[in-house]
Design goal:
The complex is a heterodimer of chains A (549) and B (615). Helices cover 41% and strands 16% of the residues of chain A. Chain A is α+β, with helices and mostly antiparallel strands and 549 residues long. Chain B folds into two domains: 92 residues, Pleckstrin-homology domain (PH domain)/Phosphotyrosine-binding domain (PTB) (PH-domain like, Roll), CATH 2.30.29; 375 residues, no CATH class. Classes of the chains: A alpha+beta (549), B alpha+beta (615). Chain B: This is MTMR6 protein.
Chain lengths: 549, 615
């Protein structure tokens, strides 16, 4: 297919661009296969807007006489308006945008066409390999092994080719366990707590069904992570009744009788349409400037978004608490083990592991616990809050995770090497990107699409020193402690950087942030200067002494 | 003195507590725990004491403070508890001004320092700064002996064309004699903010002198022929007042006025609104939705928004239309003070400095007779007179500091500290209800002024991000008052609930770093001077060599002062980098603890049976 077929009017002049809190700009609009490009013709202060078609969530058109207006709502929640003279041009452009923003074949997406203009210093596709992770692990313990049982994705289609499992469990046992777990997602190591040797495992639900099936290998596998005489905790992200209902469909949960050493705790972490609706309601509330206080607060409440945040943080803290405080191993799962499970395990690591609070460590966490672990990004992030499609599989699971990280970041502003912008960047790229990182739903699909060969990795770009400097937190000071956030409603806040980003003038806040950075930078300069002067003075003094001698 | 008293955490779900000794002094309640940490509570800060039913561990005593601290003690013996309870009741309720702490507080200042302290804020100087008296405005001596209005200050500025008979006539037509006077003069726009109380218009009464008075104000502004009259009350309230012979200005009787209601609720609504807010925020194990719906039902943020909206309206009338504005409510000492002072704060950057903010409070709140004593319940009095009007003003200012982080010289700690002392009765400034009362109490001789003390420790109150160039003199601040900008002020209402605040405070870090920068700058000067001195003695070649070796060095200052423990007035955290990692029980996700002790759910044992049958 040629993109040109979809572009009936590639260019329109005298188009007016309206954005909130910016004066309207007049200029030329161009459509290419992957971008909507607007450039003002003003010579002194030319302004250009490049918008990826894949970033467009929905489009509306209106006509007043022959002047057409297109309102574009983006996945990053921005809304822009284009006034296009001429009804035909406007209709053509609108239909082109509509077609180009809803291409159904992955291989037509921009990452397959994008040619980087920068020098690749490090190929991001191989920056974070599970093998490296295992090497680190084997330096502290030999209780685990790297299994290639899933080579060719033959055992579990949504797992990566290699996984870390207890050493005493052989591949044959793993194959049996896979049959006992939903989608074959058998328990694997998610995190090893060096401090006390406790482990966090993740999996999908066991397929106990109504007649209480059991699997000896499964029991053996997870028991292998326990110290003798100690108990472990199963954190089921579903409420008890939901877990019970799942048995009717062949699913279920670990029964006490077969897992006597494990205590089960049920949490209630929402998924799918409940999250998506919550997201849509929140964005709606934030976009309406006319709300009076009562209406705003009741809309905020009705969205339930902050409730989801609190629930998720609570569950993650609980998992962290079991590991760090109770000295117990933990198994986390929900139903499929690809959404709420990953939210909990990755957030628990943010709390427990200082490494995950560095830039590289966080990238590694996203790769390990989301991409390799098989979170279906392509399905979940197909549409954002403005779409009318309402597909069952769309849900802001990853965004919710990022927001929880932001909430912890706010409470521990000096403990993270990255800043808020880094989290926003990941949110944007998960929904629309020139990089292939978030394409596909799991490693299996990525391998089939040959993404590492055909597209550029986000990490290749972001880890270059000149980009990285934008995402560094000037307040960062390595903090090796476990960080326990407060989950009181009074301590949680709306993530303004994402939800109010386009709805309020942010100039003053940005300037203040800049000033903060300047103070820190200036401090470092001054300290260096003082040290240099001190040394100079000391040398002068010793110089004098030697001469006097 | 009572020993073995337990101090409970207000929000913790576990029964963790600190054990220590409770002391009662003449002015304070003091609790020292086993690790020698001290908790001081001023008796004047105590708003309510409550004895809860006896428990197995002892007799619980809950003390609520005016600075929103709530402490929960458990006293082992009931008799002791009862004694403490009775003593606190007596000590926290003062009947006479002379018994207040300010009259016994001695900060070791000599008499001349005391006098100087009171002279620090000079309102005559302030009016001069605004540019009055001038061709249109003059100082009136009409109220020199408090003959016309007891609750106004002696010195008042009025239009030159307003003669004494007009003033007297107008004052008779205004509630409590509070006739229209100047509150703020904008010298660039030649427009004025004036304030007064409601007119005694009833359904049809009019007063020529009052009409003249308004005309005089209008004419004192050469750049605009109309003026605004802002009634800060909801229209319904103002109309109800007409039945009592009061009311609002009839536009037909006053020439060239534009009349406007802005709908701020009265002190009773505000009191119960805050009460509701505190009930919600004080709930243990609060869910997000209960919090948000409680916040909504309390109406508190709606009221704060209404106050700020009114101030924005006022400021725009002056800055954009160059129109003078007359502001009133019922008596003109609550809502009027809020709106006039916030309006001036938006208009004039001087009030965004530390000294300027003190002046603003002295002028619009203290001198114009905001009834601090009644509103803050300094003496045992009518509980219906209590209202958080001033707290609300501070909260509005805080909201502005959040939106304009670089526009204010002072920080949140300054606002909190002022709030603390409005209720502490430790200094004389806020005692009494009006200037006349203060003079009668001889406060300037018998007590000390708060301001010099705040100024002496102003380092703590400085906003490190403040940029004077951000808003040069008389530039208007235009806050965005869309609802989502208003947030719950956690540092005010949970100031003392440590578990709720960020464990690392970005604010403190920036504050300390900026402080350290100043020190480093000095160090550099000193070192450079020393090196210069040395160089005078030694040869030059040597120095050049050294300069080459002096490039970026390993940081020798291993522990810069900003990471040391430093007591800041911020509630957030004493230590910038201390992390309370050790206490999961502080946080509300520790439901786990109770889950451990819970019996196995019944369903599981049922399954047990099922499983066995299938086996």
């Amino acid at each position: 297919m040629e993109f040109a077929e979809l572009i009936k009017t590639p260019r329109a002049d005298n188009v007016a661009l309206h954005r909130p809190f910016h004066p309207a700009v007049e200029g030329t609009l161009c459509l290419t296969g992957h971008h909507l490009i607007f450039s003002s013709r003003r010579q002194d202060n030319a302004e250009e807007l490049w918008l990826l078609h894949s970033n467009i969530d929905s489009i509306e058109k209106r006509f007043v006489g022959s002047l057409g207006t297109i309102i574009i709502k983006c996945k990053d929640l921005r809304i822009i308006q284009l006034d296009i003279p001429g009804m035909e041009e406007c209709l053509n452009i609108a239909s082109s945008i509509e077609a180009l923003s809803t291409l159904d074949s992955v291989t037509l997406m921009y990452p397959f066409f994008y040619r980087p203009m920068f020098e690749v210093l490090e190929d991001g596709w191989s920056s974070f390999l599970l093998e490296q992770e295992f090497e680190l692990l084997s330096s502290v313990t030999n209780e685990w092994r790297l299994s290639c049982v899933n080579k060719e994705f033959s055992v579990c289609p949504s797992y990566p080719p290699v996984v870390i499992v207890p050493k005493c469990i052989d591949d044959e046992a793993l194959r049996k366990v896979a049959l006992f777990r939903h989608g074959s997602r058998f328990p694997v190591l998610s995190y090893y707590h060096k401090k006390n040797g406790m482990a966090m495992l993740r999996s999908s639900q066991p397929l106990t069904g109504t007649n209480g099936r059991r699997c000896k290998e499964d029991e053996k596998l997870i028991n292998a992570t326990l110290r003798s005489g100690r108990r472990g905790f199963v954190i089921d992200t579903r409420p008890l009744n939901v877990a019970q209902q799942a048995r009717a469909k062949g699913g279920g949960f670990e029964q006490e009788v077969h897992y006597p050493q494990w205590r089960r705790i049920h949490k209630c972490i929402e998924r799918f349409n409940i999250l998506q609706e919550s997201f849509i309601k929140l964005v709606e509330a934030c976009n309406d400037q006319s709300h009076n206080m009562d209406r705003w607060l009741s809309k905020l409440e009705a969205s339930n978004w902050l409730t989801h945040i609190k629930e998720l943080l609570t569950a993650a803290c609980l998992a962290a608490q079991c590991i760090d405080r109770e000295g117990a191993s933990v198994l986390v799962h929900g139903s499929e083990g690809t959404d709420s499970t990953l939210q909990v395990t990755s957030l628990a690591q943010i709390i427990l592991d200082p490494r995950c609070r560095t830039i590289r460590g966080f990238e590694a966490l996203v790769v390990r616990e989301w991409l390799l672990a098989g979170h279906p990004f392509q399905q979940r992030c197909a549409q954002s809050a403005y779409s009318n499609s309402k597909q069952k599989w769309e849900a802001p699971v990853f965004l919710l995770f990022l927001e929880c990280v932001w909430q912890i970041h706010r409470q521990f502003p000096c403990s993270f090497e990255f800043n808020e912008q880094f989290l926003i960047l990941l949110f944007e790229h998960a929904y629309a990107s020139q990089f292939g990182t978030f394409l596909g739903n799991n490693e299996n699909e990525r391998a089939k699409l040959k993404l590492p060969q055909k597209t550029m990795s986000l990490w290749s770009w972001v880890n270059r020193p000149e980009e990285l400097s934008r995402f560094q937190n000037p307040l960062y000071e390595a903090n090796s402690l476990v960080i326990w956030p407060s989950v009181a409603p009074q301590s949680l806040q709306l993530w303004e950087g994402v939800f109010l980003r386009w709805n309020r003038p942010s100039k003053f806040l940005e300037e203040a942030e800049e000033e903060r950075i300047n103070i820190i930078k200036y401090n470092k300069e001054l300290q260096a200067k003082v040290n240099a002067l001190r040394r100079q003075l000391a040398e002068l003094e010793t110089g004098e002494e030697t001469r006097e001698e | 003195q009572v020993e073995q008293v337990k101090l409970l955490d207000r929000f913790s779900t576990s029964n963790k507590s600190l054990t220590g000794t409770l002391y009662l002094t003449a002015t304070h309640l003091l609790f020292i725990d086993s690790s020698q940490r001290e908790t001081w509570i001023l008796h004047h800060h105590i708003a309510a004491v409550e004895k809860l039913p006896l428990t197995t561990s002892g007799c619980p005593l809950v003390i609520q403070c005016k600075n929103f601290r709530i402490v929960h003690f458990v006293v082992p013996r009931e008799r002791d508890c009862h004694d403490i309870y009775n003593s606190l009741l007596q000590l926290s309720r003062t009947a006479k001004y002379e018994e207040l702490y300010a009259f016994s507080y001695n900060p070791k200042q000599n008499e001349s320092e005391q006098v100087k302290g009171w002279q620090l804020i000079d309102l005559a100087e302030e009016y001069k700064r605004m540019g009055v008296p001038n061709a249109y405005w003059q100082l009136s001596d009409a109220n020199r002996d408090y003959k016309i209005c007891e609750t106004y200050p002696r010195e008042l500025y009025v239009p030159r064309t307003a003669s004494k008979p007009i003033i007297v006539g107008s004052s008779k037509f205004r509630s409590k004699g509070r006739f229209p006077v100047l509150s703020y003069y904008h010298k660039n726009k030649e427009a004025a903010i004036c304030r007064c109380s409601q007119p005694l218009s009833g359904f049809s009464a009019r007063c020529l002198e009052d009409e003249h008075m308004l005309q005089a104000i209008s004419k004192a502004n050469p750049s605009n022929r109309y003026m605004y009259v802002m009634d800060t009350r909801p229209k319904l309230n103002a109309m109800a007042n007409r039945a009592a012979g009061k009311g609002y200005e009839n536009e037909d009787n006053y020439s060239n006025i534009r009349f406007q209601f802005v709908g701020i609720e009265n002190i009773h609504v505000m009191r119960s609104s805050l009460q509701k807010l505190l009930e919600v925020s004080g709930t243990r194990g609060l869910s997000v939705n209960d919090f948000l719906s409680g916040l909504e039902n309390s109406g508190w943020l709606r009221h704060v928004k209404a106050v700020l909206d009114a101030a924005v309206f006022l400021a725009k009338a002056i800055a954009v239309e160059s129109a003078s504005v007359l502001v009133h409510c019922s008596d003109g000492w609550d809502r009027t003070s809020q709106v006039c002072s916030l309006g001036a704060l938006l208009l004039d950057s001087y009030y965004r400095t530390i000294k300027g903010f003190m002046v603003l409070i002295e002028k619009d709140w203290i001198s114009f007779g905001h009834k601090f004593s009644d509103r803050c319940c300094q003496l045992d009095g009518d509980p219906k007179e209590i209202s958080p009007v001033f707290t609300q003003f501070l909260e509005s200012v805080w909201n502005l500091t959040e939106q304009f982080p670089q526009a204010f010289e002072y920080n949140e700690a300054f606002l909190l500290q002022i709030h603390e002392h409005v209720h502490s009765c430790q200094f004389g400034n806020f005692l009494g209800n009006c200037q006349k009362e203060r003079e009668e109490l001889k406060l300037k001789e018998k007590t000390y002024s708060l301001w010099p003390f705040l100024l002496a420790e102003q380092k703590k109150y400085q906003n490190p991000l403040y940029n004077p160039a951000f808003s040069p003199e008389l530039t208007l601040l235009e806050p965005n008052t869309v609802s989502f900008n208003f947030k719950f002020w956690r540092n005010m209402y949970h100031q003392f609930d440590r578990s709720m605040h960020p464990r690392q405070s970005m604010f403190n870090l920036i504050m300390n770093t900026s402080e350290q920068n100043k020190q480093l700058e000095e160090d550099i000067k000193e070192l450079e001077a020393k090196i210069k001195q040395r160089n005078g003695q030694s040869d030059v070649v040597l120095v050049k060599e050294q300069e080459q070796t002096a490039h970026p060095a390993p940081v020798a200052l291993k522990t810069p002062p900003c990471f040391q423990k430093e007591q800041l007035p911020m509630p957030v955290n004493d230590a910038v980098r201390t992390i309370e990692g050790s206490n999961t029980a502080d946080n509300r996700y520790s439901e786990l603890v109770s889950e451990f002790s819970k019996a196995e759910p019944a369903v599981v044992s049922l399954e047990y049976g099922v499983a066995r049958m299938t086996c």
